């Protein structure tokens, strides 16, 4: 017994020692943009600044934030005062106090991310809504605009939830839930909703809809003539000089500069460029799991930036700041300042997407030809002909801001106003193609270079993939780096290694499964019992774009992959896709799912592939599981709720 007691005390002592001695992560000096302590009460802020409308946004790629800014600007046009707020920065428990402000209104622009999830910055707000059943929001006036994509299973889930939940908690809906579909025309959905929303607000508050249509500047330009260049941003995302002196932890506001150690072309032939990159994260303390996403911050093509400078007749190396005219705003600048126009257009601004209608509207005043002015304003209106013109001339023709300036010679806006209006360049997410069990210090990316010809005969190039393609391991003796961070996902291997897995990933959709296969192989090496591991991969031609062929066939040889099924869509007269192979093997597939508790994973294109594969699973349940279509749909839904049917898809 004494021996046991002794052992027990040693263990307890060790555990206590371990907890006490764990190194606390070093606090990172916070460089807040404002010297004062951040005000977490939006009510106090609104009172102090005389605002009556607050626009919250849940945004992952910047669009919801953009829409929120536009609505806040609108408020000014209708003689009200609006402010934009990130729910992450304020205590949302104060919503019940909004009634202390007369004629107050909260607008929520909420995007849905992943499988019906909230965006990262709205996660806490979402949790708060779910947990607080006794919250009384009876004095709150609100409206919601949701941003979603119909190709996904949970279309606009977050917008719908916030709209419904606020009503349940007693708040008053001033105007119907708006829903934007990014698979259709998100911009048009928003403009149409907004067109009806403001008259309804004015009517509700008994305000005259004055609707001042002039352009309102949000920022003023300051040119710096004699500034110390050490104070100038050169592309950093958060802290000044953060790319020179790197300090963990690394995240979306403080990315890590990873060295590129491998960059190779994967396909043997064909006109596309599929590539495999490896990023070195040694010493970064970054941890990842198979199934996570790596986010990278790309830069725009310098040729495009130079052309913009030329066409606008600007010296791109002037050092400038754009300072918010509303001194109380949390957002002091539209992007890190002071910086140069060249840095802003290269690192901070999106110059390749077709501009949204508000940008055209605000720039119209700078067109010297009245016809151009009229067309630009028309495209920003909600008239049917205006919408059709925007659809055909801007969207269908894939005209970015440079193409618009080239095709409209009378339009020459001041570069600072253009920089104020363009959206921020966003990080791009890739499914990690490696396992941290096998590659703890390396993150693998598998991607296809985007390049296509537009209807106007121009060549458009994907920003991130072309930037990655040019990240050579050594470039003129320099080592290439990529600013990155990790975004956790729900796409996870089963907790029990004995569960079989069915992986469906054609094209670059194979990425996370390379990580899964590595991990199942590692588990086997550890002497763990591993269930069946089945892959369905697809590409166009066996001798062209069968990527990772050697690795996959090797994994099948050594028994890590129990079954490798590959669909070559164009190697015969009729197209063969992954869903055809699934239905061909329906008995085996059904046994794995229904009897052996298999987990199903689908990665790749959401618009066609993920839908067709889901239908194939319905058909298997009908044919082998002897179900009606309704029962089959219900069966797959249940697999989803149990976390046995996971998707990592994009459109």
Automatic annotation (TrEMBL):
Gene3D superfamilies: 3.40.50.360, NADPH-cytochrome p450 Reductase, Chain A, domain 3 (1.20.990.10), Nucleotide-binding domain of ferredoxin-NADP reductase (FNR) module (3.40.50.80), Translation factors (2.40.30.10). NADP(+) binds at residues 272, 508, 569-570, 575-579, 612. Its main location: endoplasmic reticulum. It holds the Pfam family Flavodoxin_1. Residues 53-198 form the Flavodoxin-like domain. Binds 1 FAD per monomer. Binds 1 FMN per monomer. It is a single-pass membrane protein. It catalyses: 2 oxidized [cytochrome P450] + NADPH = 2 reduced [cytochrome P450] + NADP(+) + H(+). Its EC number is 1.6.2.4. PROSITE patterns: FAD_FR (PS51384), FLAVODOXIN_LIKE (PS50902). Keywords: Endoplasmic reticulum, FAD, Flavoprotein, FMN, Membrane, NADP, Oxidoreductase, Transmembrane, Transmembrane helix. FMN binds at residues 59-64, 111-114, 147-156, 182. FAD binds at residues 428-431, 446-448, 452, 462-465, 650. One of its GO terms (molecular function) is NADP binding. One of its GO terms (cellular component) is endoplasmic reticulum membrane. One of its GO terms (biological process) is response to hormone. Its cofactor is FAD; FMN. Residues 253-494 form the FAD-binding FR-type domain. It is found in: Endoplasmic reticulum membrane. This enzyme is required for electron transfer from NADP to cytochrome P450 in microsomes. It can also provide electron transfer to heme oxygenase and cytochrome B5. HAMAP family: NCPR. This is NADPH--cytochrome P450 reductase. The gene is POR.
